[in-house]
Amino acid sequence: MLLVFYLVGNQRLLQFLPRIWKAKKEIAGQVAIILSVAIVWTYAEILTVAGAYDNTTQETQMNCRTDSSGLIGAAPWIKNPHPFQWGTPIFEAGDALSMMAASLVAVIESSGTFYASSKLSGAPPIPPYALTRGIGIQGIGTMIDAVFGAGNGSTASVEDAGLLGLTQVGSRRVVIVSAIFMVFLSVLGKVGAFFASIPLPIVGALHTVLFPYVASAGLQYLEFCNVNSFRSKLILGFSLFMGLSVPQYFKEYVFLSGHGPVNTGTTWFNDIVQVIFSSPPTVALIVAFFLDRTHTPGACSTWKDSGRYLKDKSDESEKTKEIYDFIISLGDMCS
Q: Where does the chain cross the membrane (predicted)?
């Protein structure tokens, strides 16, 4: 119910705010997400205090109550995160190989998010050196996560890319301020726990609203391909189908049997296969790349239908260099 309420509220705010406040559509998009979350979150808090979830199932209470996890009461006011707070790291070859597979999946998914972000912000296509630099910074962030015992690595957020398309705010200064804000919340335990108590249906609704912007940005890159070609239709349709069906099969197999389809005596090998084939973007990329390189690669029309000829003709403009060059001073963050 919270999911439906949020989706309806968000769409209504997007439609009626420009008329009520006589504001531009971009301004309405900037405040619609915040207002929708605040309204539904307050509604969930009222229902929790009123006891509406007291006699419901355990699953409903875990998903809808704002006090189910007890985060706010257990969190300290001041939390001082420090390196290796959970003890000395332990290195094992099998676990390292499993994490390398997870890093490969994160690189593929983050690359798609980077391309979508550049498209949604109206910037030129991201050049290879900027893409590899972003992946490298992501690796440094994952290393810092491990040092501080975060329990998970860093990756590009699809929701943030969708928020970029909704709000039309692509300033680097906003990203810097958001990063400082998150560091501030990590020190104030109560405040961080307050935001962590948001009900899961609201988080799912956020993903439902923001993900279409990222998906549509990815589909826009098909404008460089000949979508009327049978070859393009085959590669696009088959890769999307396999990217959706194979990960679902792997996840359901684990849910029903307790292990993945590949169940050998080597745990790290099982983890590698499970991680790679549980990622829809990774499976779709593998299938699309294989078909693109093997399906009539020598045909005269292949080079044009795939859009590669446009890449050969494109030159790096001064605007691209200005946007994607490495920032060496805070004054460069204005763009």
A: 27-53, 174-196, 202-222, 234-250, 272-291
Residue 19 binned pLDDT confidence (cut-offs 50, 70, 90): low
DSSP character string of 159-184? HHHHHHHHH----HHHHHHHHHHHHH
Displacement of CA 310 from its chain's centroid (Å) = 28
Question: Is residue 78 classed as helix, strand or coil in its secondary structure?
Answer: strand
CA 272, CA 289: separation in Å to the nearest integer?
Answer: 20
Q: What is the dihedral of CA 153, 278, 217, 311, to 10 degrees?
A: 90
H or E stretch including 237?
helix 230-257
> In the 8-state DSSP scheme, what is residue 249?
H
Structure tokens at 300: 């005269």
Could you tell me the sign of the dihedral formed by the alpha carbons of 164, 108, 236, 289, in that order? positive
Q: What is the pLDDT of residues 189-200, one digit of tens each?
A: 788 778 777 888
As beta bridge partners, residue 188 has 78
**326-331, long-range: CB < 8 A, 24+ apart:** 326/133, 327/172
The pLDDT > 90 percentage for the chain reads: 16
- Helices and strands per DSSP (H, E), number in the chain: 16, 0
